[in-house]
């Protein structure tokens, strides 16, 4: 009998947690891809708001991009470091939040250290699944709060 009560309590707790997650405040930003070979040769931000534009962007790339979001209220944001002359470069989302119509994205940016590096062109980027509404400006900054990119 104790096991049944414990299991029922566990199920109730899981159900309440699920409801809290669904009803949680604020949209969620998720990382869809972080790669050193994205194929975006220009540095900067690209916001894609439609599946047809995403498919067109996919056709222009060598590497595969993540699938378009299943929900209508989502867009894809590409943060590209542009073409780099060696390996050792990367960018990865650490945190994201929306405050007063401003989407703030904290990233970890890696650059090669001194010494030997691979002599290969790379095109590092991070691709994020972002809400389509609730913000009209985006700021991308690194761990020392240096502004990495800003787009109006």
UniProtKB/TrEMBL annotation:
Residues 1-20 form the signal peptide. The lineage of its organism: Bacteria, Pseudomonadati, Pseudomonadota, Gammaproteobacteria, Pseudomonadales. This is PrcB C-terminal domain-containing protein. InterPro entries: PrcB_C_dom. PROSITE patterns: PROKAR_LIPOPROTEIN. It comes from Tamilnaduibacter salinus. Keywords: Signal. Residues 77-131 form the PrcB C-terminal domain. The keyword Nucleus does not apply.
